[in-house]
Design goal:
The complex is a heterodimer of chains A (505) and B (385). Chain A is built from 16 helices and 13 strands. In chain A, the strands form 3 sheets. Chain A has a 6-stranded mixed sheet with strand order 3-1-2-5-6-4, sandwiched between helices. A 5-stranded antiparallel sheet of chain A has the order 7-8-10-11-9, with helices on both faces. In chain A, strands 12-13 form a two-stranded antiparallel ribbon. Chain A starts with 7 loop residues before the first helix and ends with a helix. By secondary structure, chain A is an alpha+beta fold. In chain A, α5 crosses α8 and α12 crosses α15. Chain A is elongated. Chain A is 45% helix and 13% strand. Chain B is an alpha/beta fold and 385 residues long. Classes of the chains: A alpha+beta (505), B alpha/beta (385). Chains A and B meet through α11 and α15 of A and α1 and β1 of B.
């Protein structure tokens, strides 16, 4: 029943029936002349706006409808002969089933059918409106490639392929989504990535049965190890250089058609502090910056809670002169420091949300009105004390140092504010300990989330809190890859050894 | 189920604790200094506290220093503090207290019992200095100390910043040191003794001093050091030479400027990080001292145009140091209290078995001294710079 009918009219009727009320389906019938003088009816079916019409006209219709085109009337292998002898289209695939025909049309291919044939040919002449390659707004760099992924999966794959020209670089495409039939591509380097992780990822993708995949975020949420966790266990990036580097480390990329955000697994916690630019520059400064990022993370999470704990419970911890200044600032404010801090952080989160959603210029205006005017007015009207505002500002700035943890930080900050407010330093320590235990218990595709910190791995330690010189990062992390050697030993540049010196030695 | 229980525990933990012990900054009266005097009205103790004044206009606060000084009487320190709480509208916070000053009468009656109350106070830092003063301690807070707006901070700042860099040789004794010394086998202490500076004659006052008089603020100084007996009573006041000798023997003197006059030449020498070793051999104290002396100033008149004789200078300094040490020994013998901790030293040297060794301050004899002083002279300037 699923087979293509011998009669073209039947096939046309069935197509019309299945694609009823779909306005942009084009069914173009035409005739080809045969050697015995008769004419054979043929049909081109495709979606308007998804195919390159100029190519269809020039490479399919023109050769077949040309007055000089006379073909053999033999039914057997009729279409195959046409494809082999006359049609200059690179991507051509034979099909015999009606379901294949439907899928091919839905996937923006052009299908050629002929009367008296039980098969058809699928030609790939896709042409979508695509966004050109631009610099993404995330993962900005001063030094390093500027290009970012687009919404087109083919283009994204080619961007990766351009960076990794190896037969080992595998790209496996599968369709996910009952209705959306979205192409999802797993990319990995076979000789580096662990087979166990690749298989696990394939299994998890296979499990997904959903109506549609609109963005890679859908996939991310459906394959996570700890779906209820605060911490993300699937990474993402908008830049091909980052994804290529991750793949060289043994990770697996997941490209989803229609999304410029490419996912990668496993994602480990220390990665949140690594930036592509760290590796493109000399190591001294960027080791320092790496340390700063860790410090900023702790500031962003802990400082508001600590501030409240110290001002409410542990006033003796502050130096005497500092507490005098702080009391002077706080004494006329009506609210407790905990409430003031909570208020300011909530106002900031609202401002941030507004700033992100509004168009650029308005967003900036709101930011200025909100942050500058309101903050200043609140302090001068003695509603909020200046130290609270300073702590809030420091926290907010610090939370943007590692953008991938931004959402986590925002939630954790609230948790620690409450802990500090209710239980003081003791509460903060308790929650911090719980948090560390929890993070240590997490796994991303079987890899401990805190590795290579816990379990500690000496060979990978040079790329956690600092970034050691590139020539000394010889090995890949043990847990990520069995093929551990990243580079040859002894790549540290040195002066050329003089022949004369050698002889003397 | 386990997760639900965990969440329940967390919520109970967070919300049943009920913010106990929470105290907002606005509610705190931060005590910076405490004065303790014998009360006039028959009750035993009068406590005076200096509380931080955080009015934004600091110039006003310095004009009226008494507005943040409060006093209350009570049978005990705790009772007095309790009474103080009903005068001050804020929670008295002791965590930043810098000084505890005892008045003259208190010092004569003995202070050990009162120190105990502060050791037991959980908020009080063990680094708060204990001082003695002339007259009433409550009067001290009406004075002025150094550049600080608060008397307590001024005194504490002076005692905290003693040492080489500041060339300030005012040593303090904090709660911790005081109580440790009181637990020694031969307990005694030396405390800084505060006094108002004697004002100059009325004639020839310059503008600044007149202003000071108007403000009614007298300068406070650490005039000498009081030796406190095992009962916490004041028994002796050290003069300057005895102070130097005591600090040398207690190994707490880091720097001392000594001015030497010789043949109408004046020299300022700094005794710099003296290294002292004290031994008790055959019932005689052997004291070896080794120090460098840096020449800071050589005031040489034109008539005498020769290089200073360094050996001669070293001899004079050596004499000075010897005299200081001997005077400290004499002071100890005179007051009968082991504030130089010599008895404790014997006890320590015998590894805690010092019970058999008889030590008596009354029997102290002149120590054997071996003092080596090197004077370092930076050279003579012949030409104008």
């Amino acid at each position: 029943l699923d087979r293509i009918s011998f009669y073209l009219e039947d096939n046309i009727n069935r197509l019309k029936q299945e694609f009823s009320e779909i306005s942009n389906l084009v069914l173009r019938s035409f005739y080809v002349s045969q050697e015995n003088g008769s004419k054979r009816k043929m049909l081109l079916a495709y979606f308007d706006g998804m195919n390159d019409k100029a190519l269809i006209d020039a490479n399919l219709l023109l050769p077949l409808m040309h007055p000089l085109c006379i073909v053999s009337e033999k039914n057997e292998g009729f279409l195959q002969r046409l494809v082999e002898e006359r049609l200059a289209v690179s991507h051509a695939k034979k099909g015999t089933k009606f379901s294949e025909l439907n899928e091919a049309i839905l996937n923006a291919n052009c299908v050629l059918l002929a009367d008296g044939c039980c098969d058809f040919y699928i030609f790939e002449l896709k042409k979508f409106p695509v966004r050109s390659v631009t610099q993404p707004d995330t993962d900005m760099v001063i030094r390093g490639p500027r290009e970012g992924f687009t919404e087109n999966i083919q283009m994204n794959m080619s961007m990766l392929r351009r960076r990794i020209k190896a037969v080992d670089f595998k790209t496996e495409v599968q369709k996910i989504g009952r209705y959306s039939q979205t192409d999802v591509c797993i990319c990995y380097i076979e000789s580096i990535a662990k087979k166990k992780i690749v298989d696990e990822l394939k299994n998890r993708l296979k499990r997904i049965d959903i109506d549609g995949i609109i963005d890679s975020g859908y996939i991310e949420q459906l394959i996570e190890d700890a779906p209820l966790s605060l911490f993300p266990t699937v990474g993402n990036s908008e830049k091909p250089d980052i994804i290529a580097a991750k793949m060289l480390e043994g990770k697996i990329a997941i490209i989803v058609d229609g999304s410029p955000i490419v996912l990668f697994v496993p994602k480990l916690f220390p990665e949140s502090f690594q930036v592509s630019e760290d590796y493109y520059n000399r190591f001294y400064f960027f080791s320092f910056i790496r340390v700063l990022r860790w410090i900023a993370f702790f500031i962003a999470v802990f400082v508001p809670g600590f501030y409240i704990a110290i001002t409410t419970y542990h006033q003796e911890m502050l130096p005497s002169n500092l507490i005098m200044t702080m009391v002077a600032a706080e004494q006329d404010t009506p609210f407790s420091s905990g409430f003031s801090m909570l208020l300011m952080i909530i106002i900031f989160e609202i401002l941030r949300e507004v700033g992100v959603r509004l168009p650029g210029a308005i967003g900036q205006t709101v930011g200025i009105v909100g942050a500058l005017i309101m903050g200043d007015a609140a302090v001068s009207a003695n509603i909020i004390s200046a130290p609270v505002l300073i702590v809030m500002a420091l926290t907010v700035i610090s939370s943007y140092v590692s953008p991938s943890l931004n959402n986590v930080v925002a939630i954790l900050r609230f948790v620690f504010i409450f802990a500090g407010w209710v239980l003081g330093g003791f509460g903060i320590m308790m929650i911090a300990m719980l948090l560390i235990f929890y993070a240590a218990s997490l796994r991303s595709f079987g890899i401990p989330y805190l590795s290579p910190i816990a379990p500690f791995e000496t060979s990978a330690a040079g790329d956690i809190f600092i970034r050691k010189p590139l020539w000394s990062l010889i090995y890949r992390p043990r847990l990520l890859s069995d093929n551990r050697q990243r580079m040859k030993r002894g790549l540290k540049p040195h002066l050329p050894v003089n022949e004369g010196d050698k002889n003397e030695k | 189920m386990r997760n639900k229980l965990l969440i329940l525990y967390l919520f109970l933990f967070l919300f049943l604790s009920g913010c106990s012990g929470a105290m907002e900054l606005q509610e705190l009266g931060i005590v910076m200094g405490i004065g303790i005097d014998a009360a006039k009205d028959g009750e035993s103790v009068e406590i005076t506290v200096e509380i931080a004044n955080y009015s934004e206009d600091s110039s006003q606060s310095s004009d009226s220093p008494q507005e943040n000084v409060f006093s209350a009487n009570g049978n005990t320190i705790t009772d007095a503090i309790n009474n103080l709480n009903s005068i001050v509208d804020k929670y008295l916070f002791w965590g930043h207290n810098k000084v505890i000053i005892f008045g003259e009468e208190m010092m004569q009656a003995g202070i050990n019992a009162y120190i105990d109350a502060f050791i037991r106070n959980a908020e009080m830092r063990p680094t708060a200095f204990i001082l003695a003063c002339e007259g009433k301690a409550s009067e001290i807070f009406k004075g002025k100390s150094g550049l600080a707006a608060s008397v307590s901070f001024g005194i504490a700042g002076l005692l905290e910043r003693n040492g080489k860099q500041t060339r300030n040789k005012k040593l303090g004794c904090n709660i911790q040191e005081f109580s440790e010394n009181m637990l020694n086998k031969y307990p005694a202490n030396i405390l800084p003794y505060l006094k108002f500076k004697a004002s100059d004659d009325e004639s020839g006052q310059d503008g600044e001093k007149q202003q000071e008089q108007q403000n009614n603020k007298k300068e406070i100084e650490i005039a000498s050091y009081a030796v406190v007996s095992s009962e916490g009573k004041i028994v002796y006041k050290l003069d300057e030479k005895e102070q130097t000798g005591s600090f040398l023997l207690l190994d707490k003197l880091e720097s001392e400027i000594i001015t030497v006059e010789n043949n109408s030449q004046k020299f300022s020498l700094e005794l710099y990080s003296p290294k002292i070793s004290i031994d008790y051999i055959n019932q005689v104290w052997n004291i070896a001292l080794n120090a460098d002396c840096k020449m800071y100033e050589a005031f040489i008149t034109n008539e005498v145009n020769s290089d200073p004789d360094l050996d001669l200078l070293a001899g004079i300094v050596k004499n000075y140091v010897s005299e200081a040490i001997i005077s400290a020994f004499n002071a100890e013998r005179e007051c009968g209290e082991d504030f130089l901790q010599l008895g404790q030293q014997i006890y320590r040297m015998s590894e805690g078995k010092g019970n058999n060794i008889e030590f008596s301050v009354k029997n102290l004899v002149k120590p054997e001294l071996d003092i080596k002083i090197d004077v370092i002279f930076s050279g003579e300037i012949f030409n104008s710079i």
